[in-house]
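Before a colleague's protein record goes any further, I have to sign it off. Alongside the sequence sits a line of tokens, each denoting a local backbone shape. I want your independent view on whether this chain really folds as the tokens say. Where you disagree with what is written, explain briefly why. This is what I was given:
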Amino acid sequence: MFIRWLIGITFIYASYHKIVEPAHFAKIIYGYYLFPECIINLTAIILPYLELLSGVALILGIYPRSALLILESMLFIFIVALSINLIRGHNFDCGCFSFGERGYGYSVLGLLVRDVIYFILGLQSLFFNKHRKWCILQSGCILKNI
């Protein structure tokens, strides 16, 4: 329960400035140099609302496994994007919690470590249940509970 709240609140908080300043967020997405220009504006508009709705659903317990699966998918994509830019040696604002021009000021490696920790916590919450040891080992468990 604590992990769900932690991840939900984090994504709700992260979505706020992206919703308020979609143009700034679009510039940040462009700075990744990974995505086609034609989808950047649409991504900058849709992604924050997906973060917000999934975070709220996770906290309120509305289809929590589905919300967590969406957030875990986003975290995986963030990890891949950060890893590619780390390998390139490109230091940039990830857009996660940045307000203003300078951003949060973390190194790309620090951001990557943070996202991997959140990802592992989310996997733990997704696949472990206090009533069952490994939810995935029980037939149909994932599909029934999503």
